[in-house]
Amino acid sequence: MKTSTLLGAAAMAGALALPAAFAADAKPTVVLVHGAFADSSSWDGVTARLEQDGYTVIGAANPLRSVKSDAAAVAAVVNSVNGPVVLVGHSYGGSVISAAAAGAGNVKALVYVAAFAPEAGETAVGLSGKFPGSTLGPTLAPPVALADGGKDLYIQQAKFHSQFAADVPEAKARLMAAGQRPITDAALNEAAPAPAWKTIPSWFVYGKADKNIPAAALEFMARRANAKKTVAIAGASHVVMTSHPAEVAQLIEEAAGARR
């Protein structure tokens, strides 16, 4: 073989090796899953910080219809990512990521943001009532009847700021109230399947002034999941990712950088 051919083959081999080297150093994709009474815009402050630090972010649309079908929708998004994923869930979105990550080989970390981390058989309603402190029930609007016999739940707009987002500016909370996404009553009462947090490392962050899920319940779930790190923010509401995006983004980045 001629020397020029050898050099050409070596150069090609080096070129082919470069993408693999880059892939090894690549940051994981962060998939953000919103919860009930919210949408992906609730992550805007977190997304901006993550993107500034070089992360690719996907705000997954959570249908809020049932744990099983919502998890399947999120799992499809995760499976479409070519590379490692940090899967992040808020509130009911925690139940969804716990199910969606099961069997997903590319999910390297789970981050629970004021979120449910249910054991198999548990429900969101049951966990929120496990400890005293949730005041969500009386703030719900009359259910909206669906054609299939189900019921959609909303928070009364006049009570949304105080209940859901007390530490968010009032003008912002009004917009959130108007654009809130409903969840079915059935989804909140659906038993969870075997959770992925038993096999995938988890991180937790929540507000100590959460009125939807009592802080005691969130602390209990974090301890039970053997969380790598738990951050409890004094005075923070249920939408801690909206009111404290820097702290939430920092924890997500810690999870992204941790070794499995």
TrEMBL record:
Domain AB hydrolase-1 span(s) in chain numbering: 30-250
Signal peptide region: 1-23
InterPro entries on file: AB_hydrolase_1, AB_hydrolase_fold, Sec-Metab_Biosynth_Hydrolase
Origin: domain of life: Bacteria
GO molecular function, one term: hydrolase activity
Lineage: Bacteria, Pseudomonadati, Pseudomonadota, Betaproteobacteria, Burkholderiales
Protein name: Alpha/beta fold hydrolase
Keywords: Hydrolase, Signal
